[in-house]
C-alpha cells in the first residue's frame, strides 16, 4: 500500500505507476542476542539477496523507512527515516543497517526502501 | 639560462657511498674551474649588481599591541582535487538517473564540470531532461555509448548553472509583486537556444542507431524479480 510511492505523481498512467528505483526490504528487528537487543542497528532482509557475497553490492546504499502519521508535517502525512546499509549479517543475505534515528519497534515487519545510490556502477 | 645539453650533465663528484664523494673540496674547486673564473676576473669572483629593490611603503608603527602572544593558525595549502570520474563514464555514455525529479530517465553524459558534477542532457526533445548537472553517485552508467564528438561544450561550466542574483529594487507594493511573478516563470531564451544547439547534433547521432530514441524516451524501473546486484548495465 505504501509501495505506490510515486502515487502522488502518477495520475493513473501505467508507464508511470510501475516505476520503482529502489529494492524492497523487510525490517526484521533489531540487532540482538537472545535476551538483549541493540536498537541502534536494525536487521533488514532485502528481496532477492540470499548470500553474504551478494550483500557487497548493497553496502553503503541509502535506505528509507517511510511511514504515515495523523499529524501533517511539512504539509504531508508521510514521514521518513533515512539510513544506510552498513554490513552483512550472517551468511544468508540479511543486512545490518543504521538509521538517522533508531527505527521504532512498530516498524518490525514493515517495508523499507533500499535505493541504488550512492552508485558505483 | 644556459642552452640545454643533449645529454644530462653527469655529476663531477661521484658518490663513493651515500653522502661521501670521491673528490675533496679542493679537488672539486679545481675540477669546476673556479680558478679559471677567478683568473678571468682579476683574482676575484665576479659579482653581479643586486636587482634594485622595489620601493617599500613607509610602515607605520601599529596602534595596538596585543597583551599576550597571539598564535598564528597553521597555513593550509591544501587544494581539493576534482572528483575522480568512474571509468565507466565517458562522454557520450547513456546514464540512468537514480534520484531527483528525473529519476529513472536515461540520459546522455556530455562532460564533467570543474566542480566534479556531470553535465547531462536528455536530449530535451526525447525525454524532457534539459542540460543539467548531476552528481556521479546518483547515476548508473550503462554500456551504451553515443558519439558526441561534434558537439561544442565549451560554454557550459558551473557558472552557467548558477542561480540568477536578483537585484534588490525598491518598488511600490503593486509593482513589486508583478515583477517577481514574471521573472520566475520564464527560462531565458539563450538557454533554450543552447539546449537546441546541443541536442540538434545529438539527436542526429541517436536516430542513426536503431531503437535508441525509444530507449532514451523510456524510463528505467525495477520490476518484480529484478535484482540490481545481478543486473549488468
UniProtKB/TrEMBL annotation, chain A:
The keyword Cell membrane does not apply. The keyword Ribosomal protein applies. This is Ribosomal protein L35Ae. It holds the Pfam family Ribosomal_L35Ae. Belongs to the eukaryotic ribosomal protein eL33 family. Keywords: Ribonucleoprotein, Ribosomal protein. GO terms for molecular function: mRNA binding; structural constituent of ribosome. GO terms for biological process: translation. GO terms for cellular component: ribonucleoprotein complex; ribosome.
TrEMBL record, chain B:
Residues 42-62, 176-195 are annotated as: Disordered. It comes from the Eukaryota. Keywords: Ribonucleoprotein, Ribosomal protein. One of its GO terms (cellular component) is cytosolic large ribosomal subunit. GO terms for molecular function: RNA binding; structural constituent of ribosome. GO terms for biological process: cytoplasmic translation; ribosomal large subunit assembly. Residues 3-61 form the Large ribosomal subunit protein uL6 N-terminal domain. InterPro entries: 60S_ribosomal_eL6 (IPR000915), Rib_uL2_dom2 (IPR014722), Ribosomal_eL6_CS (IPR049633), Ribosomal_eL6_KOW (IPR041997), Ribosomal_uL6_N (IPR005568), Translation_prot_SH3-like_sf (IPR008991). PROSITE patterns: RIBOSOMAL_L6E. It holds the Pfam family Ribosomal_L6e. Gene3D superfamilies: 2.30.30.30. The keyword Cell inner membrane does not apply. Belongs to the eukaryotic ribosomal protein eL6 family. This is 60S ribosomal protein L6. It comes from Gossypium stocksii.
Amino acid at each position: 500500500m505504501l509501495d505506490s510511492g510515486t502515487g502522488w505523481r502518477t495520475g493513473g498512467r501505467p508507464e508511470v505507476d510501475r516505476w520503482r528505483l529502489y529494492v524492497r526490504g523487510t525490517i526484521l528487528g533489531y540487532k540482538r542476542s537472545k535476551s538483549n537487543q541493540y536498537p541502534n542497528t536494525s536487521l533488514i532482509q532485502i528481496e532477492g539477496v540470499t548470500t553474504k557475497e551478494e550483500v557487497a553490492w548493497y553496502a553503503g546504499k541509502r535506505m528509507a523507512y517511510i511511514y504515515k502519521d495523523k499529524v501533517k508535517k511539512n504539509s504531508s502525512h508521510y514521514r521518513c527515516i533515512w539510513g544506510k546499509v552498513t554490513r552483512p549479517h550472517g551468511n544468508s543475505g540479511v543486512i545490518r543497517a543504521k538509521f538517522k534515528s533508531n527505527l521504532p519497534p512498530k516498524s518490525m515487519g514493515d517495508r523499507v526502501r533500499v535505493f541504488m545510490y550512492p552508485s558505483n556502477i | 639560462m644556459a642552452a640545454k645539453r643533449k645529454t644530462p650533465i653527469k655529476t663531477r663528484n661521484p658518490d663513493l657511498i651515500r653522502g661521501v664523494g670521491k673528490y675533496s673540496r679542493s679537488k672539486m674547486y679545481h675540477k669546476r674551474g673556479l680558478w679559471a673564473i677567478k683568473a678571468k676576473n682579476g683574482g676575484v669572483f665576479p659579482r653581479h649588481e643586486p636587482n634594485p629593490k622595489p620601493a617599500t611603503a613607509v610602515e607605520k608603527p601599529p596602534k595596538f599591541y596585543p597583551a599576550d602572544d597571539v598564535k598564528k593558525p597553521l597555513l593550509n595549502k591544501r587544494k581539493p582535487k576534482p572528483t575522480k570520474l568512474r571509468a565507466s563514464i565517458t562522454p557520450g555514455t547513456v546514464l540512468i538517473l537514480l534520484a531527483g525529479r528525473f529519476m529513472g530517465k536515461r540520459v546522455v553524459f556530455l562532460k564533467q564540470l570543474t566542480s566534479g558534477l556531470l553535465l547531462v542532457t536528455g536530449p530535451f526533445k526525447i525525454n524532457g531532461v534539459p542540460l543539467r548537472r548531476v552528481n556521479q553517485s546518483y547515476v548508473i552508467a550503462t554500456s551504451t555509448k553515443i558519439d558526441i564528438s561534434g558537439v561544442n561544450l565549451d560554454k557550459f561550466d558551473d557558472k552557467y548553472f548558477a542561480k540568477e542574483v536578483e537585484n534588490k529594487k525598491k518598488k511600490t507594493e503593486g509593482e513589486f509583486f508583478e515583477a517577481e511573478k514574471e521573472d520566475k516563470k520564464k527560462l531565458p531564451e539563450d538557454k533554450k537556444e543552447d539546449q537546441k544547439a546541443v541536442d540538434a547534433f545529438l539527436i542526429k547521432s541517436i536516430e542513426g542507431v536503431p531503437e535508441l530514441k525509444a530507449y532514451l524516451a523510456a524510463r528505467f524501473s525495477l520490476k518484480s524479480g529484478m535484482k540490481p546486484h545481478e543486473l549488468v548495465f
